[in-house]
Design goal:
The structure holds three protein chains of three kinds. Chain B is built from 15 helices and 17 strands. Chain B is α/β, with parallel strands linked by helices. Chain B is elongated, with a radius of gyration of 27 Å. In chain C, helix 8 links the parallel strand 10 and strand 11. The longest helix of chain C has 15 residues. Classes of the chains: A alpha/beta, B alpha/beta, C alpha/beta. Chains in contact: A-C, B-C.
Chain lengths: ~350, ~475, ~325
């Protein structure tokens, strides 16, 4: 597990040692979460992977309209980040948001239904892959605009503070968004007003085809935190424990009223930007190297190695996720389409 | 090859011109450069010269009429050309479209056939084969059965505006009684029934027949269509007026003139003291006789007007050749009294419309424009009070207290009765048991206004019943 | 129990509406640049910060995009923000949040949320502020389903429409003409609303319908008084709402007058006038038109600085008069 923190103007990476608590050889974060939560996290990671693979197959069979942005390879980042959050806490998500949605507790059946453009989908077929939201679980929605959700997250945090709740908001975005004005304006305001928001940049190295090296002046997105006087934390986004630990730290800090944190979760998308990506900007070797660092495989192995999971349990978790996905696809396929007469329904409230 | 002599464009904005004088007689030998005719424009009279040598023939009549620019007005045969191989005789008729009109692919020349009354700025007033007119003017013309081509546009570039249509739609025949006979009363120079004129002109001012105060009520005759042949007389139902037939007449062609009667208390006719059904028949009969309609006529009556028509025909004072009765009254006791009350009481479009809907099956028939027009007509007419008195006289207590059954049995001209099965004003079952010589057409899913809701069927029946030789 | 009616300026009426809403609901907050102790660029928020505190009258950084986004997020999660753009021109910086987010979130999310957000846009020319501080961009936003766009022309209406906007569950954009801020008019005390989506006939007339927005309503009324001296009775309709647009009132008026002039300050082409004209052409009122429809709008140029050029760039009373006279004289 690796993690560095850049704090305020003093950018000094501080390796955090693996903690063993009370003689246990378990990471502190695992002790905090406990077996059930960890197994549940593993299942969510499987669900995300299977959901996206299922969506990919459905797309190839022509069952899905439009494109989709897959987060295969980024599951630990989504699930790890959401570990400290309850349903009352909010997230804002991105165009690559299936993982965030499932991590925040969404029902994969309604997600598939939305993919299939069905009335039973989360958005009644109006949103599709890029706008899936699950407000009941605190997901304020994926967003088709790069950086679009960041100021909205700040607004939700302002609302939480103003209404004197203990809610925290996590805003997911990609490396591409760190060069949008909205990112900078939003981070600045969150810091000025000390709002309970955690900015999570899932740096998967490419904004569509343009690498962070070619697009971003600083070496790490987390270095931007200096400008806004908030902690900037870099984690291995494929390491569930590291992500979860960083998220807990930032969320705890936010709940204490100490203001925002910027976490940079370094990860990699195995698939292309969208279904039309021909991977001309990166090598097969690079993709293969990251494939070898599959976050699900790593997490499962860690749980097995630490004795938190048996081989049978592992199989059972995976089988359970597969059953859920199969049922979800069936539910979506059999669901009714929205009536055409309802085209303009939901534009206004009344 | 014979050469054409055309009416040339001699002025920028000229679309038509007049030949004021031919300078050579037909058959004359002409030489190139020789003046052939004089053309008259707004600005000047110009001589037009021959463009070829030869013998001139087929000269267009130099009467005072507009000829579209480019029209052939004569032909010149070169020496030795045989008359037999000559193309068709010159007609001031359609010449190929030229210039601007050609660019627009317009049927300019067709629209500009000789004799068409011209609007002020000639061709510019017509766009793509249709008159330049505002939407309002078009609608008013449509509703009043007026041809835009007959109007002069007073607006910019000859655009016909609402005021132009209004000026043309004043009925000319609503003259003070006792009226002179209709044929004399019709201004001979006016092609359209609706002569241009304004309401201050006594000749065109509609005057209600209240000039005859001693009469229990009088009917007024309105000429709805010009024509030669057996006149067609239309008698409206309770609460309507002669003008109420105009929508039915739109698009119809009859050879004979068409007249509408305003029954006492309706349209332009006063109805001070109608005491009963016979007063209505008296008034209708007198109006027709006084108008000089002593020859053969065909009569169509709707509802109360149908009953009046039948009873009038039975009296024999008029030469009624055929009778078409639409949803006629007088066949049974029931009539929708609620409708009579509500219809008479309605003072706004909102309150009138529901009652008008009672008249039909298809609510689409009752357009907002129709409701509005009906309301306006009532405001113009002799008054709701007069109609109340008529209703009290002929439908006391919501009952039809007169019968035309005996009249019908005595009639020998073709008589047809049309009823809509879904009539909510007078039940269609009243039409049961008609005399054997009376034909009945029952129209399914039609209400009290078959001439609105099934106008094509009614037209077909009407054409069957009026003398086909006309 | 009639509320007392006082003379208030347009700006005071806005401030009073905001104060009423803030008293009634502590989730109503104000956000904007320099709206706190400064009182707002046009002194609309005035002293509200002293009454409600900095937490509820929030000065934002000069971050229109971020600020608008924060307002959207706050509206999504329980607050009712009233966001002031210092000049409507600056909304161009925030279009992403207004158009892609505020307007669409409810629809994209299948009706699961609503965005009870009010945005205020000081707009229009006449102040010598030139091209980047004088625009009338209301038609831009009115083109976006999901937004409601209003343009009140009187102190009474701005208070009532603002209170209606705050009560509305959807995002409402209020365009306030800067020249109107000091205009006074009768305003009742207490809370009342003016319905969004309803035009108001300011003057009855039978010869020509003039549909106007914002400051143009007053110019049209002035022109109407002049026209009346010539015996021309103009019916002046204050559109008030661009989206939803009350075409019914205009249709009924045109059916009466047969003639229509649209007067608005935004650039003439592809603007409000085009929409009104088309709505009439598509409606039953078409058959009542007895003259071409006229549009009087802003010139095809940025708003210039020179005061005479500036005046010439947008319709004035004389422009309306001349147009109406030509139309009524049958010269058009």
């Amino acid at each position: 597990m690796t993690m560095q923190v850049t704090d305020g103007g003093r950018a000094q990476p501080t390796p955090v040692p693996v903690q063993a608590d009370g003689g246990s050889n378990l990471p502190a974060i695992y002790q905090r979460l406990g077996r059930d939560a960890l197994r549940d996290a593993l299942k969510k990671m499987h669900l995300i992977r299977l959901f996206e693979e299922g969506a990919e197959k459905a797309y190839m069979r022509g069952l899905i309209h439009g494109t989709m942005h897959l987060s295969i390879g980024q599951e630990a980042s989504a699930v790890g980040t959401c570990m400290p959050l309850s349903d009352a806490d909010y997230i804002t998500s991105t165009h690559r948001g299936h993982g965030h949605c499932i991590a925040k507790g969404a029902d994969v059946g309604r997600m598939f239904a939305e993919f299939f453009g069905k009335e039973t989908g989360y958005c009644h077929g109006r949103g599709g892959s890029m706008h899936i939201a699950d407000v009941a679980k605190g997901n304020l929605g994926a967003n088709g605009i790069v950086g679009g959700g960041i100021p909205i997250a700040v607004g939700a945090a302002l609302s939480a503070k103003r209404r004197k709740t203990t809610q925290v908001v996590v805003s997911f975005f990609g490396d591409g968004a760190n060069n949008e004005g909205a990112f900078h304006e939003a981070l600045n305001m969150a810091s000025v007003w000390k709002l309970p928001v955690v900015f999570v940049c899932e740096n998967n190295r490419y904004g569509m085809s343009t690498s962070t090296e070619r697009s971003t002046a600083v070496a790490n997105v987390a270095d931007r935190a200096v400008a806004y006087a908030m902690p900037g934390v870099i984690v291995d986004g494929n390491d569930f424990a590291a992500v979860a630990q960083a998220s807990f730290d930032a969320v705890d800090r936010a709940r204490r009223g100490e203001g925002p944190t910027l976490i940079e979760s370094k990860t990699y998308r195995i698939r292309g930007h969208s279904r039309s990506d021909r991977n001309r900007y990166r090598t097969k070797e690079e993709i293969e190297e990251w494939r070898g660092r599959d976050p699900i495989v790593a997490f499962e192995k860690e749980l097995l190695d630490l004795g938190l999971l048996t081989r049978d349990e592992s199989e059972a978790v995976r089988a359970e996720a597969e059953r859920e996905i199969e049922a979800a696809i069936n539910f979506a396929a059999e669901s009714p389409a929205p009536p055409l007469k309802d085209l303009t329904r939901f534009v206004y409230s009344n | 090859m014979p050469s054409e002599v055309i009416l040339p464009r001699v002025d920028m904005d000229m679309a038509t011109g007049k030949i004021s004088k031919w300078l050579v007689p037909p058959g004359a030998t002409v030489t190139k450069g020789q003046p052939l005719f004089e053309i008259e424009t707004d600005k000047a009279t110009m001589e037009i010269e021959a463009e070829a040598d030869g013998t001139i023939r087929d000269l267009v009549d130099a009467s005072a009429r507009d000829i579209p620019v480019g029209s052939v007005v004569a032909w010149i045969d070169a020496a030795g050309e045989a008359a037999a191989e000559k193309p068709a005789a010159a007609e001031p008729a359609p010449a190929p479209p030229r210039g601007r009109q050609q660019d627009e692919g317009a049927e300019q020349a067709v629209a500009e056939s000789p004799g068409t009354p011209k609007v002020s700025s000639g061709g510019l007033a017509r766009v793509i084969g249709r008159e330049r007119a505002t939407p309002l003017a078009r609608r008013l013309a449509r509703e009043h059965g007026i041809a835009l081509a007959d109007l002069r546009g007073s607006g910019p570039r000859g655009r016909i505006q609402a005021s132009d249509v209004a000026a043309a739609s004043k009925p000319v025949l609503l003259e003070p009684r006792p009226a002179r006979s209709i044929p004399e009363a019709s201004p001979p120079a006016t092609k359209s029934l609706f002569a241009a004129g304004d309401s201050t002109n006594p000749e065109t001012t509609p005057v209600a027949a209240s000039a005859a105060p001693l009469s229990p009520g009088s009917a007024t005759l309105v000429r709805l269509r010009e024509g030669d042949g057996t006149p067609l007389v239309l008698i409206h139902g309770f609460g309507s007026e002669a003008n109420g037939w105009r929508p039915f007449l739109t698009g119809q062609s009859f050879t004979g003139p068409v007249f509408g009667l305003d029954l006492p208390g309706h349209g332009g006719a006063a109805g001070n003291a109608v005491a009963g059904f016979d007063d209505l028949v008296d008034a209708a009969e007198s109006a027709l006789l006084e108008a000089g309609l002593k020859g053969a006529i065909d009569v169509v009556g709707h509802s109360l007007g149908g009953a009046v028509a039948a009873s009038m025909a039975e009296r024999g004072m008029l030469d009624v050749r055929s009778l078409l009765l639409l949803s006629p009254a007088g066949l049974g006791p029931e009539i929708n009294g609620g409708f009579l009350q509500g219809y008479l009481g309605a003072t706004s479009e909102t309150s009138l419309r529901p009652w008008m809907l009672e008249l039909v099956v298809d609510p689409q028939t009752i357009t907002p424009a129709l409701v509005r027009a009906t309301l306006k007509a009532r405001q113009r007419s002799a008054g709701v009070e007069a109609q109340r008195r008529v209703a009290a006289a002929v439908f006391p207590d919501g009952t039809q207290c007169f019968s035309i059954r005996a009249d019908l049995a005595r009639l020998r001209m073709p008589v047809r009765v049309i009823f809509g099965t879904d009539d909510r004003i007078i039940p269609a079952r009243h039409a049961a048991g008609l005399p054997p010589l009376v034909a009945l057409h029952l129209l399914p899913n039609i209400g009290h206004m078959p001439h609105f809701e099934a106008s094509e069927v009614v037209t077909t029946i009407l054409n069957q019943v009026i003398d086909p030789q006309r | 129990m009639d509320a007392a009616v006082r003379e208030l300026s347009y700006a005071q009426a806005i401030q009073e509406a905001m104060a009423i809403a803030m008293e009634a609901d502590e989730n109503v907050i104000l956000m904007g640049e320099d709206i706190g102790v400064y009182g707002g660029a046009f002194q609309v928020t005035g002293d509200l910060v002293h009454r409600f505190g900095e937490d509820r009258v929030m000065d934002t950084p000069i971050s229109e995009l971020g600020g608008a986004g924060v307002a959207v997020g706050a509206a999504l999660t329980g607050l009712k923000p009233i966001f002031e753009f210092q000049f409507s021109d600056f909304a161009t910086l925030a279009m992403e949040q207004i158009v892609n987010q505020a307007a669409k979130i409810r629809y994209m999310l299948g009706g699961e949320v609503s965005v009870p957000l009010v945005m205020r846009f000081p707009a229009g020319s006449g102040t010598g502020a030139a091209a980047q501080h004088s625009q009338s961009l209301e038609a831009w936003l009115a083109h976006v389903p999901g937004l409601k766009v209003v343009q009140p022309s009187t102190p009474y209406d701005v208070k009532g429409l603002l209170l209606a906007a705050i009560a509305d569950p959807d995002p409402v954009m209020i365009f306030e003409h800067k020249l109107l801020y000091k205009m006074k008019g009768p305003v009742p005390e207490g809370s009342y609303t003016v319905p969004i989506g309803k035009a108001e006939i300011r003057r009855q007339g039978s010869h020509v319908t003039i549909v106007a927005t914002a400051i143009m309503v007053h110019r049209a009324l002035e022109a109407a008084i002049e026209l009346a001296k010539d015996g021309i009775e103009a019916e002046v309709i204050d559109l008030r709402s661009l989206r939803p647009m009350d075409t019914g009132t205009i249709i009924e008026s045109v059916k009466k007058t047969g003639k229509l002039i649209c007067v608005y300050e935004g650039v003439k082409t592809l603007g409000i006038g085009a929409e009104i004209s088309a709505a009439i052409a598509e409606s039953e009122a078409f058959d009542y038109l007895d003259a071409p429809i006229l549009r009087l709008g802003g010139a095809e140029c940025p708003i210039p600085y020179n005061p005479d050029l500036e005046k010439t760039a947008v319709p004035q009373v004389d422009t309306i008069l001349a147009a109406a006279r030509s139309l009524l004289a049958g010269r058009l």
